[in-house]
Design a protein that fits this description.
By secondary structure, chain A is mainly β. Chain A contains no helices and twelve strands. In chain A, about 35% of the residues are buried. In chain B, a hairpin with a 6-residue loop joins strand 7 and strand 8. The termini of chain B are far apart. Classes of the chains: A mainly beta (about 120), B mainly beta (about 110).
């Protein structure tokens, strides 16, 4: 069974500082990996995705993530955080390749980001 | 691309009542997913449709829950005899095909009195 661990429940950074949110996944084969962001009372917005190929993927809003198979990690990074980045961030894994299944997503418990001005 | 639309945004009901939620996916998306999110947790998969066929259901989907997608377009999720534990955000997502990113709606927040 696939699973995702986001070890940091809350993170606080100062505006302009760099950010790294951690994500570790468990999946037996090649995974599809995603980062989503959720503002209070809203749905989830896709930040970026990894399917295959280049292990460093670029997303929207200046975010990037690096897939490290040896560490089963897919950490999200941003060089300079803006106050508007304050939100909850979810890492998710889906079955990669053709599984004949629905490619449902398994989410981590999320990391709440607070940005200090 | 008008996005995934969910209705209502909020639903307050008494325990024991039935409730129904609607999801309109992005028009060209043939896959539709339902998730449930409780406070402080990530979304949990409930069920998924490819066109009108319901192809997978989670063990979280008790027999009080039923989902339909009669014409392969919009979907409904019904909860019968609601319980306190059903209080959650119910999220709908859609995608074009397996592995493609799922696009989420803003959810329906269900509160059980």
């Amino acid at each position: 069974a696939q699973s995702v661990t986001q070890p940091d429940i809350h993170i606080t950074v100062s505006e302009g500082a760099s950010l790294e949110l951690r994500c570790n996944y468990s999946y037996g084969a090649t995974p599809y990996l995603f980062w989503y962001v959720q503002s209070p009372g809203q749905g989830l917005q896709l930040l970026l995705k990894y399917f295959s190929g280049d292990t460093l993927v670029q997303g929207i809003k200046g975010f990037e993530a690096e897939f490290k198979r040896s560490q089963s990690s897919f950490n999200l990074r941003k060089p300079s955080v803006h106050w508007s980045d304050a939100a909850e961030y979810f890492c998710a894994v889906g079955a990669g390749g053709f599984t004949g299944g629905g490619n449902k997503l398994t989410f981590g418990t999320g990391t709440q980001l607070k940005v200090e001005l | 691309d008008t996005g995934v639309s969910q209705d209502p945004r909020h639903k307050i009901t008494k325990r024991g009542q039935n409730v129904t939620f609607r999801c309109d996916p992005i028009s060209e998306h043939n896959r539709l997913y339902w998730y449930r999110q409780t406070l402080g947790q990530g979304p949990e998969f409930l069920t998924y449709f490819q066109n009108e066929a319901q192809l997978e259901k989670s063990r979280l989907l008790s027999d009080r829950f039923s989902a339909e997608r009669p014409k392969g377009s919009f979907s409904t999720l019904e909860i019968q005899r609601t319980e306190q534990g059903d209080s959650a955000m119910y999220l709908c997502a859609s995608s074009t095909q397996q592995g493609q990113p799922q696009h989420f709606g803003d959810g329906t927040r269900l509160s059980i009195l």
